[in-house]
Write a structure and sequence with these properties.
heterodimer, A: mainly alpha, B: alpha/beta, 7-stranded mixed sheet, 17% strand
């Protein structure tokens, strides 16, 4: 379980757990293909097919992501195309998570039925009921994983398939100019 | 590019092309010696460095697709960890270090603090500490001062001499003016003034102006964990290593993993056995060997280099190789402010506070440290760990907090002392092997109680600073048991007595006349956990002495 507050260890260890660089070298072209892929995926006219998810699975995961970073008066995970990031992650750098995702979606369906026996799919529930289901499973590793992937897909470079039109960056105030001159912020401007 | 044949005898083999190895390579090659540097990692360059958090900064347990690009790779080189020797070590990532040409100086934050005078003589001034090997260094600050100056001027460091009332004496100012202050720096100044403390411009190994043909920092904001695509971070990759290669006497050999230092029957080293990138074994002959492989891999390599003469590991008659491991400890507080700080821009920290640098017996424990005001999380890391603990983990409130806090947050980080405890060490794991079939690096580490008390003391100071700076929200980050480190110190300590140290005060192994060890492993005490500046000053000093000894024929077997 991830803790809400960072520990010193997480600050450090977060940087220490590494995939093999050989593996990385082998995978990098595939990962970067996500760039093109995202472009396709992001255009509503010709939605890209999912590589891992079925359309039905994708709808469920996207509905989860859309509760983690919801759409309100600004775009959320859905508009940012997080689902395409996740689909790509599961066929590239995080393919170890394929089975847990499949199992997690079964668990999601079971919890949905348990709480709302009349309901069909999680993604078809009203928002308030979706929140109830997710609240019941927010301590599971599957929820943590979807949360992590949602955050990544919202804030990572758009070339990975999410953060469509830099929506995540715009929301939090990050700019990708990568060259600045002082003043940088309010307090150094108004010393 | 100079290439030496394996079979040719070179003057020096240096193992590791990092903070110390880069300096040693340049100093020895410009002094006229032939040098081969064996580096485990790849040769990287500016074009490899992208602003890509997912590629270069691992996020949190799996998945992690990057980072191994510039750092050691725990899949191929596993670590194991235990708290005490009675525990069974468990495989987990423990040590992190730069693994590319340039080593940790490629991805480091570039904080470049000199040690103070006290750091070299703290045992004398503070007294003994139960259960530790707390000791003075075999020389004083004044002996190292010229080499601090040399490092700052050769590599390129920005700062403001005389700006801290606690600074030790210096023979020259910094070569470059300080980096522009950020909002976090202004707030630290504001808070420090209120508290009667002193915030001063952070000394940084980053160029505030063009220097020696390199461009000034563009303030892109991607320093820590990233390589600098401008070449403005003063890594050895862009400073001394090119100078070494220009001599025509130095070959940097990347992707070469050294597994053993060989010795002859009379106890002199003869060269290094290493694997190339294809896994083929080679032997590079040399008149002398210099280990610059960091405080974890240097002792591991010595322990791997067992022989009839040295059954418990090369240069280990004292039994101290691997012992007294000191790591990076410290504490944090977070704070949110009313107006945008936009801390994602520019370098990570611009103001430092040294008011509590020295240990004070009145606190009831040993410990000192320094603090800086900083922001060193990137976007995903911030969303995962950067916010106040009561922010919901998902949903509309989570999104709102992201939106409001990302540009309004800063942290105060304390960098604190770590005591040398004999049972904290690097050993060879008896079971786990790396990708080359060599015993994995095993870390045994348990925080000394004084170090923990000190972290709590500093976390309280960090919160005070946040309050005084006007934070509208502030929170402490948990202090938990240390199980990971990116600063690796103390495991081949220096000293005058061969019974209580591994190398002498000029870095020569007490046991082996032509073996030298120059890296963080030589540290007798930890300093305030900003070791790079001192590692490099030590390297300049060691090289100066070594070049003179070598010229007088004093490092080569005559047998």
């Amino acid at each position: 379980m991830e803790k809400t507050a960072a520990t010193r260890r997480q600050f450090l260890i977060g940087s220490l757990t590494g995939a093999s660089s050989l593996w990385l070298a082998a995978q990098w072209p595939a990962i970067l293909e996500a760039h093109q892929y995202a472009r396709l995926a992001g255009s509503a006219a010709s939605p890209a097919p999912f590589e891992f998810f079925t359309a039905s699975q994708a709808a469920e995961v996207e509905a989860m992501a859309a509760q983690i970073i919801p759409t309100d008066n600004s775009p959320g995970a859905r508009e940012a195309g997080v689902i395409h990031f996740i689909d790509r992650a599961l066929t590239t750098f995080d393919r170890d998570q394929q089975a847990p995702y499949v199992q997690g979606l079964k668990d999601l369906a079971a919890r949905t039925r348990a709480l709302f026996p009349q309901a069909g799919k999680f993604s078809e529930l009203p928002a308030a009921e979706q929140v109830q289901v997710l609240t019941a499973m927010e301590k599971t590793p599957f929820f943590d994983r979807v949360r992590l992937h949602t955050i990544m897909g919202f804030l990572a470079n758009p070339e990975y398939g999410g953060n469509h039109d830099k929506m995540g960056w715009k929301l939090i105030g990050f700019t990708d100019e990568y060259a600045y001159q002082p003043p940088f912020g309010y307090y150094d401007k108004n010393q | 590019m100079t290439k030496f044949n394996d079979k040719s005898l070179v003057d020096f083999v240096i193992v590791g092309a990092g903070a110390a190895g880069g300096v040693m390579a340049k100093e020895l090659s410009t002094a006229g010696f032939t040098v081969v540097v064996l580096e485990q990692g790849p040769r990287v360059s500016e074009k490899d460095f992208k602003h890509d958090e997912l590629k270069f900064k691992d996020i949190y347990n799996p998945p992690h697709i990057g980072q191994a690009a510039l750092m050691n790779d725990h899949a191929r080189q596993p670590n194991t960890f235990r708290k005490t020797e009675n525990d069974k070590a468990v495989q987990q990532p423990v040590v992190g270090y730069g693994q590319c040409v340039g080593g940790g100086t490629v991805h480091f934050t570039a904080n470049y603090w000199r040690f103070h005078e006290i750091d070299f003589e703290e045992r004398t001034r503070f007294g003994a500490i139960e259960g530790t090997g707390f000791a003075d260094w075999p020389f004083r600050y004044s002996d190292l001062e010229p080499y601090y100056t040399k490092a700052e001027w050769e590599l390129g460091v920005s700062g403001l001499a005389g700006s801290s009332p606690f600074d030790p004496p210096r023979s020259k100012p910094y070569p470059l003016p300080p980096m522009p202050v950020k909002s976090s720096g202004v707030l630290a100044e504001r808070g420090a003034r209120k508290l009667g403390w002193h915030a001063f411009p952070a000394p940084m190994a980053i160029l505030s102006q063009p220097y020696h043909g390199r461009a000034a920092c563009a303030h892109c904001g991607f320093c820590e964990w990233f390589g600098c695509e401008m070449g403005a971070k003063s890594s050895t990759l862009v400073t001394v290593i090119p100078l070494a290669e220009q001599t025509g006497r130095c070959e940097i050999r990347p992707n070469c993993v050294t597994r053993k230092i060989e010795i002859d029957e009379s106890g002199w080293v003869t060269g290094a056995v290493y694997f190339d990138s294809a896994g083929h074994e080679h032997f590079q002959r040399a008149r002398a060997v210099v280990l610059c492989s960091n405080g974890a891999e240097t002792p591991r390599l010595l322990l791997l280099s067992k022989s009839k003469l040295f059954p418990q590991g090369l240069a280990n008659s004292s039994g101290l190789v691997g012992k007294y491991l000191m790591v990076d400890v410290g504490s944090y507080a977070g704070g949110v402010f009313e107006h945008p700080l936009n801390e994602f821009k520019s370098i990570h920290d611009t103001r430092v506070i040294h008011d509590f640098y020295d240990s004070d017996p009145q606190r009831g424990f040993y410990g000192g440290g320094g603090m800086d005001a900083r922001f060193d999380l990137y976007l995903i890391g911030f969303a995962l760990w950067g916010m106040p603990p009561d922010v919901p983990r998902w949903g509309g409130q989570f999104k709102k907090a992201l939106q409001e806090n990302f540009i309004r947050t800063m942290y105060v980080q304390a960098h604190t002392t770590c005591l040398p405890v004999p049972t904290n060490n690097i050993t060879l794991d008896p079971d786990v092997k790396d990708a080359w079939g060599l015993p994995a690096l095993r870390v045994t580490y348990k925080d000394h109680p004084d170090d923990v008390k000190n972290m709590h003391f500093f976390r309280d100071r960090a919160l005070e600073l946040m309050e005084a700076a006007g934070a509208i929200r502030k929170w402490p980050l948990p202090i938990d048991d240390t199980e990971a480190s990116v600063h690796l110190l103390g495991t081949c300590r220096m000293g005058d007595d061969p019974k209580t140290s591994v190398v002498d005060k000029f870095h020569r192994a007490h046991d082996v006349p032509n073996l030298f060890i120059v890296d963080g492993s030589n540290f007798v005490t930890s300093g305030r956990n900003q070791p790079t500046c001192t590692i490099q000053a030590l390297a300049y000093r060691a090289a100066d002495h070594l070049a003179r000894s070598a010229r007088s024929g004093n490092v080569e077997s005559t047998g």
